[in-house]
TrEMBL record:
Subcellular localization: Cell membrane
Record's protein name: Cytochrome bc1 complex cytochrome b subunit
Domain spans labelled Cytochrome b/b6 N-terminal region profile: 23-249
Keywords: Cell membrane, Electron transport, Heme, Iron, Membrane, Metal-binding, Respiratory chain, Translocase, Transmembrane, Transmembrane helix, Transport
Keyword Glycoprotein: no
Catalyses which reaction(s): a quinol + 2 Fe(III)-[cytochrome c](out) = a quinone + 2 Fe(II)-[cytochrome c](out) + 2 H(+)(out)
Protein EC: 7.1.1.8
Reported cofactor(s): heme
Composition-biased stretches (Basic and acidic residues): 535-547
Segments traversing the membrane: 51-75, 121-140, 152-172, 184-206, 218-242, 263-291, 341-361, 381-400, 420-441
Length: 547
């Protein structure tokens, strides 16, 4: 039992503990709450504006759960057709599914229904966007390194599940736009060799569209995927809490400590305020920006497709793969292999897996098994930063391909020209983005080197006694110089001599040769600007007459 100060009554005996104290003692004796709180509530977290992206993801997910629970009270996931007799006059007498009818009823007849629907949809878009930006922040700063590789995979899995959850979610209203998306997914499934038709019949309960797909998507969207994501988020936060947060280099910061604010009360108060800020912004977006007006789009019919039908942005690049792929197909032995759909359908997860596997490839190339708690500045890891920008540029190019008809109509361009542009850019833009980003990183490294050695430009011009004009530089503080020079510069891995002292040729495995080549390409000569040394700094400031 925990120690406490005991008050004594008039008879000299201690007063009995209050009811709240008895409950706290009971809980502490069985759950160890006091001990856990004492050790964890004062845990220190670093503070940086980029860390808010992860919080936006978390708060958007909580808002999705809250609004989603509310929507399930009114939505009817049924593919049964009924005649619409609601309050929206243009649809009077039209045959629609119960799913579509209940969605229109939520928007038109339920008090606050349209607002909640739109907050839910906007929160989904922000959630996926926040995850992508958060993962890129982790990627560019090297926060995925040991001991956080598992957390990186948790985040990548959450991103993939978020894409699938979004697909299943916007397919539920059964309007013309969402039905077109389901048709798109069914076509991709049919392209799978041998088993594609069987999978389609199993998922749709027969011929497309059937009556089973909406209830099945509802169960997956409301129960299965959110449950898995909730478990992954909890595991992700536990590992963040256990491993502590990464921090950027600075005075007093090292791999063994954390400089920041305690979790309670400062971080909790800031997190609470930020949650309501995110909720407020999403509420404003839901109130003033119309999204997915199902009443205007109309119910889905298999023989119709809406002009300018586009998926949500996070699936645009997968559609771009299919839109720009040539319509190749192979007919053999009575079967048709639709390469124009199957190859993009297979490329989609492969492109995503490249970014998931990179941390392990980098660890293998560098053979670095140390723990890292100091985040890199992106400019100081040019190979990694350039690879990330190349991946994002590919993502952007495919987004253009996914909306080629919109680009054509809005900018009065030829859709064929846009398609060929995306086909060429698919192969040309990522290497170009890699090279340009690499040069920018090296340029920023040179600027940091000059700033450390010579100081910051002040804009003041001074004339020296012998007539020369120079700009006066303001020296950096010791803390600023430390921040700019604290990063490591990896040494490329070498396989060593291929012939030993006795003239015997040493066998080097192919994997080791590949590791050495990749290491030289990433960290060899010319890939980094050497950091300034103390001797160079003393030489510059040795009284040569220049400020």
């Amino acid at each position: 039992m925990s120690e406490r100060t005991q008050d004594h009554g008039q008879d000299g005996r201690p007063d009995p503990p209050a009811k709240g104290e008895r409950i706290a003692d009971w809980a502490d004796g069985r759950l160890g709450i006091h001990t856990l709180g004492k050790s964890q509530l004062r845990k220190v977290f670093p503070d940086h504006w980029s860390f808010m992206f992860g919080e936006i993801c978390l708060y958007s997910f909580l808002i999705l759960i809250l609004t989603g629970i509310w929507l399930t009270l009114f939505f009817e996931p049924s593919g049964m057709e009924v005649e619409y007799n609601g309050t929206y006059e243009p649809l009077k007498g039209v045959l629609v599914t119960r799913a579509y009818e209940s969605t229109v009823d939520i928007s038109m007849e339920v008090r606050g229904g349209l607002l909640i629907r739109q907050i839910h949809h906007w929160a989904a878009l922000v959630f996926v966007a926040g995850m992508l930006v958060h993962m890129m922040r982790v990627f560019f700063t090297g926060a995925f390194r040991k001991p956080r590789e598992l957390n990186w995979l948790f985040g990548w899995t959450l991103l993939m599940l978020g894409l699938i959850t979004g697909l299943t979610g916007y397919s539920l209203p059964d309007d013309l736009l969402s039905g077109t998306g389901v048709r798109f997914a069914q076509g991709a499934i049919l392209s799978i060799p041998v088993v594609g038709t069987y999978l389609s019949f199993f998922l749709f309960g027969g011929e497309f569209p059937g009556h089973d797909i909406i209830p099945r998507l509802f169960a997956v969207h409301v129960l299965l995927l959110p449950g898995i994501m909730l478990g992954l988020i909890v595991a992700h936060l536990i590992l963040v809490f256990y491993h502590k947060h990464t921090q950027f280099a600075g005075p007093g910061r090292s791999e063994r400590n954390v400089v920041g604010a305690p979790f309670f009360p400062i971080y909790v108060a800031k997190a609470g305020g930020f949650f309501f800020l995110v909720f407020g912004v999403l509420a404003i977006m839901g109130a003033v920006a119309t999204i997915n007006p199902v009443w205007a789009l109309g119910p889905y019919r298999p023989d119709l497709v809406g002009t300018g039908a586009q998926p949500d942005w996070y699936l645009g690049f997968s559609e771009g793969l299919i839109r720009v792929m040539p319509s190749w197909e192979i007919n053999a032995w009575g079967h048709t292999l639709e390469l124009g759909v199957f190859i993009p359908f297979a490329l989609f997860p492969l492109i995503m897996m490249v970014i998931a596997a990179y941390p392990f490839v980098e660890a293998w190339v560098t053979k670095d098994r140390r723990e890292h708690h100091i985040a890199d500045r992106p400019r100081n890891a040019p190979a990694r930063t350039s690879f990330g920008v190349a991946w994002l540029s590919l993502y952007g190019v495919l987004m253009v391909g996914g909306g080629n008809d919109i680009w054509a109509t809005h900018f009065h361009l030829s859709i064929n020209a846009i398609t060929w542009f995306v086909r060429i850019a698919f192969f040309a833009v990522p290497p170009l983005a890699y090279v340009v980003t690499y040069r920018i990183c090296l340029g920023l490294q040179r600027r940091d080197r000059d700033k450390v050695l010579h100081g910051r430009e002040s804009g003041v011009i001074k004339r020296l006694p012998h007539g020369e004009y120079v700009e006066v530089h303001q020296p950096l503080t010791q803390a600023e110089r430390y921040t700019l020079t604290a990063h490591e510069q990896p040494v490329p891995y070498e396989v060593g001599p291929l012939v030993d002292a006795n003239g015997v040729v040493r066998k080097v495995p192919r994997a080791e040769r590949l590791r050495a080549r990749l290491s030289r390409a990433m960290y060899g000569p010319g890939t980094q600007v050497p950091g300034p040394t103390a001797e160079e700094y003393r030489q510059v400031h040795s009284g040569d007459g220049h400020p």
